[in-house]
Design brief:
heterodimer; A: about 10 residues; little secondary structure; B: about 210 residues; mainly alpha; two-stranded antiparallel ribbon; 2 strands; about 70% helix; about 0% strand; globular
Amino acid sequence: DKDQSEHDEL
Amino acid sequence: MNIFRFAGDLSHVFAIIILLLKIWKTRSCAGISGKSQILFAVVYLTRYLDLFTTYVSLYNSVMKVLFLATSGATVYLMYVKFKATYDHNHDSFRIEFLLVPCALLALVINHEFTVMEVLWTFSIYLESVAILPQLFLVSRTGEAESITSHYLFALGSYRALYLLNWVYRYMVESHYDLIAIFAGVVQTVLYCDFFYLYITKVLKGKKLQLPA
């Protein structure tokens, strides 16, 4: 699971 | 990156280009809410501060710069260059009613209590409701030009396509972000009434006119 505070969307 | 997200991003860029072209070609911003455009500029400014701290991809960085530049240009055209055509009287939505609750909510419900993260969360909440002054303007004047309707349709489709992106990412990557998903659902729901009118009227060549 990715860290939720890594935002890779726009 | 999946097809839904890419289609959503394209739809978002398309919406912005339609709006800029409409204002530029007609030399007028009649029917467009300057308040919504200011809110979108605030959304991009608070969300894309991470341009300086986090690198995701060239695609992401280019799009972020594009959104910042085009929203700045839109606000400039409306409030400076074509100020005389701006419809002040009908654009009377009070944006503090959106800004304050979004700020408070971002302070309370966020992934992490840091400046960058709270600003990101604020931008997500604000984006979900930033179209309200525009929808309010359309409801006050009772109609929208076709080009304005196309703009709204492309802008609304963008978050609807992102919903599909989030479903896909949950199923394929087990990745989800509840704040973005919740705000995205709210944002899309706000457009539903408009989508209905767009499909039943504008696509059939009629002007978007609200029932009296």
